[in-house]
Amino acid sequence: MRHSAIIGDALPLGGRVLSDGSGKRLLFGTGQGCYLAARSVWNEQTNPRPSALPSVRIVAAGELADDPLRDAHLRYGGPDSFSVDLQGIDAFLFARAKYFRDETARQAVIALGMAKPDTRYLRVGAAGAPPTDDHPGGEVLEHSLLAGPHLSGESSTASGHLPQGGDFSVAIPLTVPPSPRLLERRSVYLHTAFLPQTDGPAAPGSHLLRLEGSPDGLNALDAVKAFVSVNRIDSYAVRIFVRVTDADRPPRIIGRVLRRIPHRRLTHVQQATDIASEQEFHLLPGQELHCYGTYWPRRSVDWEALRGGKPYEPRGHIHMEVRGLPAGPRQHAISHLRELFVTPGTECLALINPIRDVVRIEPVVQRGEKLMSRCSGRPVADDFSSTAWSSIS
Question: In sequence order, what are the residues at sequence separation of 6 or more whose Cβ sits closer than 8 angstroms to the Cβ of residue 138?
Answer without folding.
Answer: 128, 129, 131, 159, 160, 161, 162, 169, 172, 257, 258, 334
